[in-house]
Amino acid sequence: MPIGNTRPSVRPAPAGRAGGPAVTSSPRRDGALRRRAGGGSGAERLAPYILVAPAVLIIVLLRLYPLVLGVNFSFTGDGAQNGTAVGFGNYRELFADPLFRTALSNVGLLVLLLPVAVAIPGLLATFIYLRVPGHRLYRSVYFFPAVLSPVIVGAIFNLLLAFDGPLNAVLGAVGVGPIDWLGDPGIAMFMVVGVHIWATFGMALVVFLAGFATLDAALLDAARVDGASMPQVVWHVIVPSLSRTIQFVFVTTMIGMLTSMFGLLYVMTSGGPEGATYLPEFYIWKQQGQMNRPALASAASTVLFMIMLVVGLLQIKLLERSGKED
């Protein structure tokens, strides 16, 4: 029992957590913190490069290396000159060939029709996103053609567009004379491109729907509150918000139109009539597979690659500029 006015002494609390033991730092922990602040160990810095190395190796071996070989092969001869350097002889022969010039003019037609090929899935995706009546059914129906083989699609439309086929029968019933859809050089290419758009726009539709998933719904609500009409909402809200998605669809659609129409061309027209539906892809197959001209086919492949590269870069630049202006 304490005597008199004796008071217990009060010690100051140790540094660290209140009411707990003092926190002391160890040299090992300080070193780990310094390494973490400085960017980690050497293994951690190399980890991203190690992870992407297999993909880079596959691209180099299966894409870039064959591309370099093909370009090099295009400067050699065919037949008796097999393996002999001929300079730009194959390219001069290419541009002197009327069929190849027709194929290049058809590429220009594809470029002109490209906005239509992108606008169709874009508008349909907009209707589905806005949940028009029956949008769930439309989502399935629109994608269905994308799972069909180009050979099957070509065979179906060969029957529909035949001179004595169902389409001309319907036109005859309303007093319109029969049209040779696939035999007229002036319209055959339009028919093939139209069938290709119908058969492939389902993939672009899926890409657009994925882009709509990132769209801020508050922007649409604000536009409606301000009294914007549907065309104004699409042009001033949806298009700028989906500019990256539109760029991707433009480039992939153009690549598909230049490199994925062989099946339709082979089944529907075989390049005819009078070579009117030739594309570089079909020309390459003819030279390689039937004419046994692999060096000339390599030159045509190189030209096709340069066309896709230039057109793709121009599309990206134009779309980026229009996005900045908006």
TrEMBL record:
The chain crosses the membrane at residues 46-65, 107-130, 142-163, 187-215, 248-268, 295-314. CDD domains: TM_PBP2 (cd06261). GO terms for biological process: transmembrane transport. InterPro entries: MetI-like, MetI-like_sf, UgpAE/MalFG_permease. GO terms for cellular component: plasma membrane. Residues 12-22 have a biased composition (Low complexity). Keywords: Cell membrane, Membrane, Transmembrane, Transmembrane helix, Transport. SUPFAM superfamilies: MetI-like. Residues 1-41 are annotated as: Disordered. It is a multi-pass membrane protein. It is found in: Cell membrane. Pfam families: BPD_transp_1. Residues 99-315 form the ABC transmembrane type-1 domain. Belongs to the binding-protein-dependent transport system permease family. This is Sugar ABC transporter permease. It comes from Micromonospora orduensis.
